[in-house]
Amino acid sequence: MDARTVVEPAPHIQVESLTIVYDKPKAAGALIAVSNVNLDVARGTFVTIVGPSGCGKSSLLLSIAGLVKPASVVFQDFALMPWRTVIDNVRFGLELQRPPRLTGGDLTERACRYVELVGLKGFEHYHPHQLSGGMRQRVGIARALAVDPEILLLDEPFGSLDAQTRDEMGGELLAIWERNKKTALFVTHGIDEAIFLADQIVVMARDPGRITEIISVDLPRPRTVETTDSKRFIEYRKQIRECLGREQS
What we know:
The chain has helices at residues 57-67, 86-96, 104-117, 133-146, 163-180, 191-197, 231-248; strands at 13-23, 30-41, 46-50, 71-75, 151-155, 183-188, 200-205, 210-216. It is of the alpha/beta class.
């Protein structure tokens, strides 16, 4: 039998030797937010980025958002328009990139599908001030998904939620992701959140911001609350804490 060369698929996201420098206002010199970062993300994988404040997690994500199209970004402050209802907020992204053959009714029908997908059926005509924090975040996720992005970028989307709602939203997000397997990058401060969601965890350190380790997560899916009590999960938690501790010592 002839030997055959196995060709690995090209990464969906590829970052090579990325350095991001910001000018310091009213001060000499510059701030190196990200230094010589290299990262490959395979199509359809869920990658989390964890590290201390100031390590360049968000700068890396925003850089990818500007270099890779199409992409949708979900931020922790929801960024909803208070005068628009749930359905109209979800429609907004569709209105901006509306294909010529789609009517207003088509856009509403599509927006309704994603509102239902994130568990908000029945709340279509509510305004953001009538919703809980977790519900507002679901609207943000529905709006991002409705435009059918190839890549979903999430910058601490659950950071402003209480612990219980945050855990619930993590489970909801995974359930949604399992249905379409979009390539996803998720920035978080939470170690357990990073492990629970990810196929791979990117650990970053600061001064300057850089990647110190990339950890592949071998936990079966779908994941449940019981996953966080497993021996393997606890081992991953210890490994990440040790990585972060080495950089701070």
